[in-house]
Amino acid sequence: MPKRIQHVLLDIDGTLVDSNDAHAHAWVQAMAAYGHWVPFDKVRPLIGMGADKILPELLALSPDSAEGQQIRARRKTIFLSEYLPNLHPFPMARYLLRRMHEHGLKLVVATSADPDELQHLLRVIGPDVQDLFEQQISAKDVQHSKPDPDLVYAALQRTGAQPAASVMIGDTVYDVEAAAQVEVKTIAFRCGGWSDDHLQGAIAIYDGPADLLAHYQESPLVQGI
What we know:
By secondary structure, this protein is α/β, with parallel strands linked by helices. It folds into 2 domains: 7-18 and 88-223, Rossmann fold (3-Layer(aba) Sandwich), CATH 3.40.50.1000; 20-86, DNA polymerase, domain 1 (Orthogonal Bundle), CATH 1.10.150. The chain is 42% helix and 12% strand. It has 10 helices and 6 strands, in the order E-H-H-H-H-H-E-H-E-H-E-H-E-E-H-H. It has helices at residues 20-33, 40-43, 51-59, 66-83, 93-102, 115-125, 150-159, 173-180, 209-214, 220-223; strands at 7-10, 106-110, 133-137, 166-170, 185-189, 204-206. It has a 6-stranded parallel beta sheet with strand order 3-2-1-4-5-6, sandwiched between helices. Strand 2, helix 6 and strand 3 (133-137) form a beta-alpha-beta unit. The N and C termini lie close together (9 Å).
């Protein structure tokens, strides 16, 4: 018999907010400012990871080194000043959150974003979504970003959620891999730019928040996992 879902762990970038390209552009500009010319197409597939993964992967550079910290700071400044003001939520993202909350599901943010960036992103979704989340797990709460399982594990520990009664909603293969390592299943969205082949470990794949909301009653959120 399917297990009823009680907790929903939510990625934000690329899942609820159309921000993946913006993050990639900000990384490209920040690295270029320090003499590292990395093409957008090489950065874009890594969005969904945190700086602890991106800088070593692209530049073989520790994110905690002096230069690593400078690049990270520049990326944040560029993202917040140049890109954030033009970001939009994916269609029906706010209404999906409300539907899940009204359904009695406990919502938990599990994102690699820094806490201050997260608050800006939540305001992009809507001014009233903050109170819909039971907990917000961000980069400051863990040592390693996705696809390491730290964020998902921290969300389970903080809330007391059981893996078998929880589901991750994300947009990248990194979300699927991170959740699987702690035996949490994933509902994936295509809106972040990943193909079904990459997301095949998910139990269900939708175009984005609007698609899941349109098929809510038939989804694992209602039917169980």
